[in-house]
Amino acid sequence: MKNLLHTTTLLVGLSVAAYAQNNADSTGRNRPLINEETKQEARQKAAEVEEKVSEEVDRSISYQQRNQLSWFQPGNAFVGGGLAFGVANEQVYLSINTRAGYFFQPGFAAGLRYDNERLVGNQYRARQFGLFTRYYPFRTRISSFIGASLNSGREFSETIGANEKSRYTSVGLEIGAMAWILRRLGAEISYEGNFYNRIDPTASQGRGGRLKFGVNYYLGQFGGRGQRNR
Questions:
Q1: Quick one: angle between helices 36-67 and 2-20, nearest 10?
Q2: How many C-alpha atoms does 112 have within 13 Å on its Cβ side?
Q3: Given pLDDT bands bounded at 50, 70 and 90, which one contains residue 156?
Q4: Taking all residues of the chain, what is their mean pLDDT, rounded to a whole number?
Q5: What share of the chain is helix, strand, coil (3-state, %, to 5)?
Q6: How confident is the model at residue 228 (pLDDT cuts 50, 70, 90)?
Q7: Measured between alpha carbons, how far is 130 from 152 in angstroms, rounded to an integer?
Q8: CA–CA gap between residue 223 and residue 37 (Å, rounded)
Q9: Neighbour-count burial of 136, counting CB atoms closer than 10 A to its CB (0-12 exposed, 13-18 middle, 19+ buried)
Q10: pLDDT of residue 179
Q11: Whether residue 66 has pLDDT greater than 70
Q12: Which of 138, 177, 140, 170 is nearest to 155 (CA)?
């Protein structure tokens, strides 16, 4: 890292010098500030940096390939659940969420989810059911994922009549990380943003983001497509 910073600083300095040499001095003449030898050294350093970056990328890819868990291979299924917390308009809400997914491609899963949420100190509550997808670009014992969901829900509060069905549709976008903790169990943390087409305005849920903590249990292969889990 120190060599990389040193080389970067040198390249920046040489770039500034190259720009400056195109400007005339006080006598109106252009004077080169760097010679061919210095330019050659800069090109050599740049090539060395490029080679080091390429080596690090190759090393990272090799590590991912050697250490990826078979959890994320096609044919494997998982179930999970957790708690989510959020703040909107100075009110706190929490939700319990569950999910079940199946891997169709390496690192790519889709499935069903169910959420039940409530505003703390308020009679407002909501429940929703939906479809979700996730992609895990890094699939080792410390993995990461991005996800999206499409949900249909219903709200309940003192402002909604007993016979009235207050329904909404939401889209969720999620990013998170998961750590392998047992043979088939992973613990995850994520942040999910939600976008709603209609909500109860008196609920003040605001539909902001939420911080989620959960676990996933990997069931193994289904249909003979999966691999044995490590």
A1: 140
A2: 3
A3: confident
A4: 77
A5: 25, 45, 30
A6: very low
A7: 6
A8: 65
A9: buried
A10: 94
A11: no
A12: 170
Distance CA(146)–CA(191), nearest Å, equals 10
Percent of the residues in the chain that have a pLDDT greater than 70, as a whole number? 67
Torsion of CA 203, 208, 214, 217, to 10 degrees: 100
Question: How far apart, in whole angstroms, are the C-alpha atoms of residue 214 and residue 115?
Answer: 13
Whats the size of the chain, residue-wise? 230
Nearest C-alpha neighbor of 45 from the set 9, 7, 82 = 7
Res. 205: pLDDT tops 80: no
For the entire predicted model, the pTM comes to 0.67
β-strand pairing of 210-221 with 185-196: antiparallel
Task: Report which DSSP code applies to 70.
Answer: G
* Whole-angstrom Cα Rg for the chain: 27
Comparing CA positions, the residue from 211, 97, 100 lying closest to residue 153 is 97
Residue type at 107 in one-letter notation: G
DSSP 8-state symbol, 228: -
The residue whose two tokens read 């090109």 is 43
